[in-house]
Amino acid sequence: MKGVRTPFSLLAERVTVSDRIIRWAAFATLVMSVLVVVTGGAVRLTSSGLGCPTWPTCTGSSIATTPAMGIHGIIEFGNRMLTDVLCGVIGLAIIAARCGRPWRRSLTRLGWAQFWVTVAQAVLGGITVLTHLNPFIVACHFLASTVLILTALAMWQRSREGDGDPVRTVGRPVVQLSRLTIAVTSALIVAGTLATGTGKHSGDGTAVKRMPFDAEKITQFHADFAMVTIGLSLAMVFVLMAVDAPAEPRRRAREFFVVLMSQAVIGFVQYFTHTPELLVAVHLLGAALVWVAVLRLHLSLRTRPSVGALPRPANIESVASLAQV
User: Fold this and answer.
1) How far is it, in rounded angstroms, from Cα 52 to Cα 38?
2) Which residues pair with 303 in a beta bridge?
3) Mind listing the pLDDT tens digit for each residue in 98-119?
């Protein structure tokens, strides 16, 4: 019995997309998901969070901004339009994956996952406006971006590998250390949203309610998580060297450490210079890049060969270590 025919399947019967284009389309979704973090931060840092005072329209009578709303309306409405661009890029990635030969369902599923996360993020953005920039909703809106980045990175990673079962290239304790590093990095990002929600950049020029935390204590809490994360990143670097891991994981561990240290330096400078808007924007970009780096490190600890193919170990020592696990 044939499956249900859809516009996607009909298009796939007539169009074939190369693996290279699929990889580029998946990478474009990752770039856009990081860009959304930056533009969302720009809305808040320019006090344009209520540039469009309602949602889903921009005003009570217009879906778009009006000249009377000024630059704040343009910035907020532009950020909303970028979400539409993101959906378009994700749609192209889904179509590209569906038209691949052979069709890899895992890729299209990850594409659709991105689409629904984007929809949820847009709804959270609307709730943020309707609640007049409630800092807890703003934090959830940012954290939804990390989920979007995760799904985009997963699609890009899958487009560069096969659909076989994953095979570890390091021992199980190293994988568990990597999982702990992801968990602590996640806590670091959450702590960052609490510090931001307590700080002065509320997203609107008027008095907006902030999180009921002590600014100094919550900043120290965030800094403590940063120190623990840096320690774990160093542990990953030395452990991967000690077990003679393949070159890819060792490179990803070094990249994660460098990105994390750069982010920490920016954070300290930002604190001692009283959180200037430009540095806060760079710090937001850094948070997204730290998240990408730790996820790439974890994904590098295994290979996923094509179905039916045997994984190709990097060296004899890695074969021995796998045999002992």
Assistant:
1) 19
2) 167
3) 999 988 999 999 999 999 999 9
Q: What is the mean pLDDT of residues 3-31?
A: 88
Directed axis angle between helix 277-299 and helix 172-198, to 10°? 160
pLDDT tens profile 140-151: 999 999 999 999
- Write down the mean pLDDT value for the chain: 88
The answer to whether residues 179 and 298 touch, using CB atoms and an 8 Å cutoff, is yes
Q: Which amino acid is at 293?
A: A
Q: Residue 49's closest CA among 284, 206, 281?
A: 206
d(CA 265, CA 286): 11
Instruction: Enter the pTM of the model.
Output: 0.90
3-class DSSP state for residue 39? Answer: helix
CA 319 to chain centre: 33
- Retrieve residue 179's tokens: 């999982």
What are the CA-CA distances from residue 216 to residues 98, 126, 268 (Å)?
51, 30, 13
| Phi, psi for 17 (deg, rounded to 5) | -110, 135
The answer, yes or no, to whether the previous bond of 56 is cis (omega within 30 of 0) is yes
The DSSP code sequence of 111-146 is HHHHHHHHHHHHHHHHHHHHTTS-HHHHHHHHHHHH
